[in-house]
Amino acid sequence: MDDTLLLLTTAAVALLVGLGAGWAVQSALTRRKLTREQSFFGLPAGSECVLVTHRDSTSAHWSIPRHDALALLGLASVVENCGAHPELAPHDTGLQGFGARTEFCVGDPTAHRRLAAHMANLLPGVAVHPGDGSGAGRGTFTIGGTAYRMEPGAVEYVLLARLTAGEGDRPVFLAAGQRPVTHRAAVRHLVRNRARLARKHGAGGQFCLLLKVINSQAYGPDVVELVADVTKAAIAPAELKGQHRAAA
C-alpha cells in the first residue's frame, strides 16, 4: 500500500512539474512573440501612437469612409495587443514630425495631405497621378518607370510601407491606395502577415510593398496579390524624364 501511494505521489509530482514546465515554456514563447511584435510596430507597452485618416468628402461633418474605419479598427486591435495607446487624428490637423511615436497613415494620397507629404519625403520614387480635368488616371502610381492604373472594382493597387526617418526611431506605416477598399486590404495584409514581415525585414527594417486588390466589387478586400517589393525603387529619387509603360 505504501509503495502504491509512493508511486501515485511521484506520478502526481512529475505531472505537476511537467505542467509547470510546459506553462513556463508557453509563457516565454508568448512573451517573446509579443516583444517581437512590439519591436516591429515600435509600440512598447505604455507608448503612444497616432492613426491618421482623411475625412469622408461626401459628409458635411467629420466622418471616416467605411473601409477606412474598418482598417483603423484592425490597427486598433494591434495597438491594444501591444499595450500602447492610440490617438486618432484627421489628415489636415497640424501634427508633430515623424519618428517620435509610431504613426499609421491610411488613405488616398491624392486627398490625404499628411500621407502625400510622407510619400514625397520618404518615397520620392513613387509618383501619384492627380488625374486630368475629368478625373481620368487619378491615383495612378508610377514606380520604376511602370504605371499602375486602376480599373475600379476589378483591379486596384495599394502601397504598404514601413519607414523610419526623422527624430527618434519609431516607424511610420503607410497604407496608400487608390480606393478605400484597398486601404483596408493593405491593413489586413499587414496584420495577418506581421510575424512574417518582421522576420523578413527585421524589427528596424524598411519596406514598401505594392499589392493588387482583385475584383473588389465581388470580394471586397479579401483577394490580394503581392505584385512586388518596390522598396529600392520607391525610396530612390524619381526619374525626371522617361517613358512609362502601363502595368497589365
What attributes characterize this protein structure?
248 residues; single chain; seven-stranded mixed beta sheet; elongated; alpha/beta; four-stranded mixed beta sheet
What's this entry about, in short?
This protein has 248 residues and is an alpha/beta fold. Helix content is 39%, strand content 23%.
Structural write-up:
This protein is an alpha/beta fold. The chain is built from seven helices and eleven strands. The chain has a seven-stranded mixed β-sheet with strand order 2-1-3-8-7-9-10, sandwiched between helices. The chain has a four-stranded mixed β-sheet with strand order 4-5-6-11. Strand 5 (141-143) and strand 6 (146-148) form a beta hairpin. Helix 2 (66-81) packs parallel to helix 4 (180-192). The chain is elongated.
Biggest sheet details = 7 strands, mixed
What radius of gyration results from the CA coordinates? Answer: 23 Å
Helix/strand structural class:
alpha/beta
End-to-end C-alpha gap? 81 Å
DSSP strand (E) fraction?
Answer: 15-25%
Q: Which blocks of ≥5 consecutive residues have pLDDT under 50? A: 240-245
Count of helical stretches:
7
Outline, from the CA principal axes? elongated
Helix amount, in percent?
A: 25-40%
How many beta-strand elements? Answer: 11
